[in-house]
Amino acid sequence: MRIEILGCSGSVMKGFNTTSILVNSSLLIDAGSASSVLSEDSIVNIRNILITHSHIDHIKELPFIVDTLFCRKAKGVTIWGSEMTIDSLKRHIFNGLIWPEMDELNVEEGFLELAPIPQDGFIDGNIRVQAYPVDHIEGSVCYLITENNRSVLFSGDVGYDKGLFDLVHSFGDKLAALFVEVSFPDNMAGLARVSHHLTPELLAKGLDGIVSSSTKVIAYHIKPKYLDMVVSQLSPGIDHIKGGEVFEF
Ligand SMILES: [Zn+2]
Ligand SMILES: [Zn+2]
Fold this sequence. Notes:
Largest sheet: 7 strands, mixed
Shape: globular
Bound molecules: zinc ion
CATH class: Alpha Beta
Structural class: alpha/beta
CATH topology: Metallo-beta-lactamase, Chain A
């Protein structure tokens, strides 16, 4: 599985892009920065776009990705999310006011679908995608991507969620990597709690004794302003990303 980090920051600042992760060239997790980072020819390969939740840092470039795919006459593009997220995208973004309502355009049949992700996920070529609810805003999910019996879990935004940690525990050695959000430094735990985000200390507590030693744990969605502080507080063995990295699992 090839994972390219297009953006992974918890906010936009010069040199920092919000969350967008490209898997095997055709599957995109969140749409925070793909269109300003990828070439047009790379965007055209995207067929499945997984949205973790409707916060703007995860969807802000979705209209422009759709625009490029539309202009290049792509077929079979699906935007996936929880029922709540798909409903929010239709009501608040693709509504004819913020961006065109797709049904109103004379788009060729088979171009684009906005679809709630089925409970047992879906299969795209060699890849299996499954979504699990997480504690952030209503409708938030994390995504498990599996290829050749190796899985990678992307937490999306999440607070201290026992459900997520139990999930990590249940996958054991099969989990090659966990990309997990850590938005704020430890001294901002109060804000992290009310906004349903994690700090290094909360993550360490949640993962204590439950994550396999063969699972690579990578922190993302760090607020750029607090990057140095958050990184200095991460437990030994937990890496972080800033964007631009490529992983093979
Ligand atoms: Zn969020
Ligand atoms: Zn976010």
